[in-house]
Amino acid sequence: MTTDPTSGNAPPPAMLRLSMTPGIGPILIARLRERFGSAQAVLETPLTHLQQVQGISAERARAIHAGVDDSAVEAEVREAAERGAAIVTLEDATYPPLLRTIPDPPPILYVRGSIDPADAFGVAIVGTRNCSAYGRDQAGRLSAALAQRGLTIVSGGARGIDTEAHRGAIRGGGRTIVVMGAGLAHHYPPENEPLFESIVRDGRGALVSEFPMRAGPGKENFPRRNRIVSGLSLGTLVIEAGEHSGALITARLACEEHHREVFALPGNVDSPRAAGCHRMIREGWARLITGAADIVEALEGSEHLLAGAMRTAAPGASLFDPAGRDGAGEAGPPPSIARLNLTPSQQRILDSLDGRAVELDELSARTGLPIHTLQADLTILQIRGLIARTGLSAIERRAK
Fold it and tell me: Residue 37 to residues 29, 137, 361: CA-CA distances in angstroms?
């Protein structure tokens, strides 16, 4: 699933043309592809047949038939190539599997940097732009701790909490994905240009957008951006969000439409910046968390989500249910996939396990790791299918 923007491979022109057609958005493209099988088939379908699809009026059908000027498509491809961006379509195997499962996945993704298989273990961190020192500190602390456990941090690149989340992931030695509310020809906000460029240059993740390369950061773009932030992630953590914060839109999408985990960090009871987080917790649709271990523990229950998403993208290549497993077998996942992005402590744990079950205290003695670190890393290794828990506290390495 690695996306290489330097590969020079042009995207299937049919999907790019369809996505550039005025009045045709992600939902209509999904309906058309479901009915006719592919973007190319849509472009070749007679007008009368197109109009049989819900939402396709005679005017929209004519727009699809008229198509987009070749020069506009060529200019978009050229702009992406010049700026080192790959164009990934919903019909490509490299399209992120979790994002593929949301109700309205973007037909086109522009990507600078790389989206790796390990990025399927994503956690979104979002919050207010006008954050407090407490919010900045917590965003950095939690993102670094999650990154150290092998999770990719996803956020929107905005000022405040988003920026601290991306920086924390880098400090933690992990990966981060920036979902932009503008085309990749823009750096928005401009003061984050050094951060964004370092993510790409140093191989620490990717900059992602569904908007054409030269699209500006319009206010209407950010709700659309938010669904991608959630869609790329197993769960969303909100840190400091007011009652009407855009971060709550992301959290609502994660909870109600994407059926992902939602977490909230409590703040000062007198702070309006924390009012949205407290309401989420009070209403019961977000888990209260105080540390990275709370998030890791909760994500253990999301195994079925990621396994299903991976099977949809590439049958037999699941990070949990490996090739050849049909529900009856117990073969472990391919090491080339499941071992991606392991931290040194996680690798030390695997190296310390032999063919028999080991109690937690004994494993701690073997590895020299404290119990709290061991517990967090064991959860990640279990999610990846590399270990299994037997009995109350015994751990064993799964067969390769």
Answer: 11, 48, 55
